[in-house]
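Batch manifest, entry 17 of 40.
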Amino acid sequence: MIRPHHFDTKRGWTDTCPGWHEVILEQYDGSFKSMELMDDKFSDILYWLYNSVDNCERHVRWLRTDTKVYLKFRYERDYILFKLRF
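Output type: structure tokens
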């Protein structure tokens, strides 16, 4: 089952896995042109995580809001591959 968000909701985003490599994609910085494209891109991101990162639910945290997608990667190699892909 693919989760729409995956982080410690009790600790909040900031305190979940501090020190991990963080990426923030925003609707208004040009990452997404519309909400429909944001939905499509978020689906692509989740698909890529589950297919490209070994045990992604253990090594990646993610959260989607109305205008942003937040990701934290445990390993720099996964962070770099994500940045190159997206």
